[in-house]
Amino acid sequence: MRFHWLLNTLFKRSCLPKARQFDRALKNIEVTQSKILLNMIKSNCGTEFGAKHKFASINSYQDFQNNVPLMSYEDYGPMIDNIMAGTQNVLTCQPIHMLEPTSGSTASTKYIPYTTTLKQEFQKGIMPWLYEMYSNYPKILSGTSYWSITPIYKPESEPSSQVPIGFGNDGSYFNRGQRYCIQKLSPVPFDVCRITDIESFRYITLLFLVKDKHLTFLSIWNPTFLNLLLEPLKYWMPQIIDDIEFGTITPPGQCDDQLMTMINSYHRKDIKRANELRVLNKHGIIYETIWPKLSYISCWADGHAKEYLKDIAKLFPKCQILPKGLIATECFVTFPLSQKGNQHILAINSHFYEFLEYPQGENIKLAHQLEAGKHYTIIVTTSGGLYRYKMDDIVEVIGFYKKAPLLKFLGRSEKVSDWFGEKLNEKHVDQILTHVFELHAIIPEFYMLSPERESDRVGYVLYLQCSQEHNTTDQADIQKCVIEIENQLCSNYHYRYCRELGQLAPLRLFLIDENKMPASATTVYLQACQGHGHKLGDIKPSVLNSHDGWAKKFKGSFVTH
After folding, report:
1. Pseudo-torsion of CA 279, 283, 285, 286, nearest 10°?
2. Which of 16, 100, 137, 169 has the fewest beta carbons closer than 10 A?
3. pTM of the predicted model, to two decimals?
4. Over 50: is that where the pLDDT of 80 sits?
């Protein structure tokens, strides 16, 4: 439709200035990065952090490196508390307009400060990516686009804060004009993200998606999200078709009346589309007939997400997968270049980046000093007030484009397990397990949490071996223990989200039987880690392991509860 083409073209052109800005930044990466750093330092000399770390005397990267140590979120914790209390000029001179939650390490949730300038830094990466994508995949321009809309998650106990704690959708990254275009081009109204009942969210999202036959582009994050979203369509389709014909919405769960009135205002009956779908539905659910123009699906394609791309390919065999870059709550790192086979280029004019060699963790390199074939973890400095902030992401330099590094995301460090975005951190898991073991008087000789495949899903398993003196056979005790651990894990913002969406199966318990083991559980663990390529002297016992398959390595059994 011409209307779609006009809106998409308008949106594409709005991305052009930032795309040109990125191209100019590529001419001298070292100068680009130095300017970003020194501008951030100069802008925040008047902050508490700036005074403590002598920002006024920093005139070079070497000064910055000497004055500011590498930092984790725990180092920022007291400062974030002050920001929540309403204190100004703590990390940035610019006001903090929002705190975005993400999974924590020693705490269940981290709160990342957002300023107007930080949002602009994200846009400097997003806009070149979208302009490049729209230019190289013009079929997107001819129809509608679904940008990931997920239910707003509110924790059961939200901390008191003078600064809003924001929970947005993909639209929050765009300016007002761009949001207008996206909303007009989206089959699903953005208000759907306010539905808290997961089944109702799925139903209403599917209703609006199925109603639209002009869909050309889907943007999601983890591939499993799409699979889980579409799964109920096989038994909801008749009711969805009726709702399309009569202009009604009949979700399976409870929804706020005022919100439903608002969502209903976007929905009009479409008898012609309902009749089309009834004919199509006689032959079963074939997604290509529901959305005949759908050509591209954008999602994560590296790390553990890569394993689930085959499921998308089965559902949409004619669609091309467009891999997403590396984007975190804290920062924007890379975006894909279609002209380089969708390899991911560092967003060199978004933030200031440093790279710590992995796994040695000794030498720090800057963006213009990276070497092809080497692995690094990322350290970032942003206008949100995070300085020399250590990320857990491991990347490999696979080449260069105009001297800018092309980075492949390999996964999280061994301290983080992240298959679907749950971001479990070893420190937080250790705190939970220690607390629950003490609560239930369990004395473990070995314990470890790791993911394990369960039929077509993945869920976490607690592998536990107790001392001979402690009785672990009481089913009531086991049930209480596992339920308590699961409840504590759900205090992690992203873990609970993945559980509610169905991306993760419930926690299970595997009791290790030392009488059936060829050696101690610790020895078996160390030998298995050796098999993964780790040097024996470098292996430390861990309470969290991101690899699956441990049920085949340990001898024992799963305990039902």
Report:
1. -90
2. 16
3. 0.80
4. yes
